[in-house]
Amino acid sequence: MSPRQFQPEQLERLYEVARSIHASLEPAEALQWLVQESVQLVGASSGSLALVNPTTGLLEIEAAVGLPEAGSSLTLRLGEGITGWVAQHGLPLRIGDVAVDDRYITARADVRSELAVPVNMDDEVRAVLNVDSERADAFSETDQLMLEELARHATQVIRNTWLYEQHRQRSELLRSLVSVGQTINSTLHLDDMLEVITREAAGLGRARMCSLLLLDAAGEWLELRAQHGAGPDYQQGPALSVAESLMGSVIRRQKPAQVANVQTSAQYQHTEIARREGLVSMVSAPLVFNGQSLGTLNVYTDAPHVFSNEEVSTLNALAELSAVAIEKARLYERTVDVEEQLRRNEQLSALGLLAAEVAHEIRNPLTVMKMLYHSLDLDFPEGDPRREDVRVLGEKMDQLDSIVDNIVKFARNAEPQLGPVNVPELIDDLVLLTRHKLQHQSIELVRDDAADLPPVKADATQLSQAFLNLILNAAEAMQSGGTLRIATQQAESTLQVTFTDTGPGMTQAQRERAFTGMLSTTKGKGGGLGLAIVAKVTEAHGGRLEVESELGQGTQISLFLPQ
Questions:
Q1: 501: domain range?
Q2: pLDDT in tens, 34-58
Q3: Distance (Å, rounded) from C-alpha 68 to C-alpha 506?
Q4: Residue 41 DSSP SS3
């Protein structure tokens, strides 16, 4: 029967339903309307539209009318049930009594008859429109033809539904990934970062639990580093072998993998833990940075679930973002460690300079004391108690002289080991080390390097320590933000390196004592080595210092290094 063969009232009803379906802008609403009108059109008591999931190949009910919750969430394989048979064969099926048909799967206990028609797109069955009745032989051939006609109209709606859903998912994915990217990049601490990643991954996938495993230093074991929603059994579980575990295969192949049921899978190592934790389906994505595997990001559900391509793509995209964020956090930690090591080196160097100063100040009066001691010829007779005092005094001066010698030996380590040094490159390294501190204090760094500057003959380590001291000193002076300008230029036969800050500046008294003593300070509080280290290093290199500073106008310190 063609549309021309329908009765006028049937045609009018069909066109009305078709017009209503196509008028809806919301795909889910259109499909629900389609099912509802189909039920009314043929006098059914319930109905549904099951779409073929292009990823899993399973039939999933997208819209339903009159079905209980269990029936509305039913998932079928192709060939399973009457709906699955229609999807597999592409033919309509009208059953007068489902009780005598072995293909029927109960959705409602009181169903007697069923009518199901395929919805074809591009010569493939993409959906099944299904109606049920409590009456036996409830549906006629005309009902079947009317339902087939509705199915034809439903084709474009379903196509639009898929396109709409694809765009919606991609849009949601983009928004989610942007949000996740902003979130995980808002912190530089690795442990905090990992917690954020697992929380966001669980939220994106609406998962029961999410875990993140990282490779150990040897690259042989995967260890749990962060989780969201995991119970004590999972948290206390053993590390996973890269060579033998499912997660290890994700690492080795650098491709996602999913398991339908981790409680029974032979691939999954800890099925007992999965049972106790109530974990069922899982998908795992590799964390890869610059071709190197870092670990895996894993999402678990508490019910059977086949992860779609979109879901896997989402997790994979998040894993890529996470790998970058993890490396960023690790780089930050390494930077902090290096900066701390530089500080220790600075302290040791300063201690050496201090030792040299102390040795010099002690050695001169000690030499005079020893000369006087020997010139006095203090030879008291036996039994005179002063004879023993003189002996002890001589021993103690010799001991003190030995101590000074040791101090001098230690101080020699502070003497510069000269070699060619590219000053702008050296400053580049220091800027890299201190950039987080400067950014945190809202300090703008401005570089002004003259072109084609020749290297200077210097000790790179000591020069780094001096420059680092000046950068940190400027940062200390600009706690509430400001600008630090570092400039390098040729100045006759010297290289001039100038550090200019917009801090509070110094008084005349502070300027006068800033570089004079190893224990002086320009901060007005605390003990510290102050700028004396810079002065000592500059002096050891045969250079000179200039300082310009006024209260409220910042400070400018210039080093002139011979070339």
A1: 419-562
A2: 888 889 889 999 999 998 876 567 8
A3: 81
A4: helix
Please indicate, yes or no, whether residues 197 and 130 belong to a single structural domain of this protein. Answer: no
- Is 211 a domain residue? yes
CA triplet 26, 32, 33: central angle to 5 degrees? 85
Report residue 500: phi and psi, to 5°: -120, 125
In terms of domains, do 20 and 105 share one? yes
Torsion of CA 418, 420, 424, 429, to 10 degrees: -70
Residue showing tokens 């007992």: 272
Contact assessment for residue 317 and residue 266, using Cβ atoms and an 8 Å cutoff: no
CB 49 within 8 A of CB 87: no
Indicate if the alpha-carbon torsion angle 35, 38, 43, 44 is positive or negative: negative
C-alpha dihedral, 84 to 85 to 86 to 88, nearest 10°: 80
pLDDT in tens, 98-130: 999 999 988 788 999 999 999 988 788 889 999
pTM of the model: 0.46
3-state secondary structure (DSSP) of residue 258: strand
* Contact by Cβ (8 Å): 64, 71: yes
Note whether 212 and 298 are within 8 A (CB).
yes
Residues 8 and 53 in one domain: yes
Q: Write out the two tokens for 261.
A: 């049921």
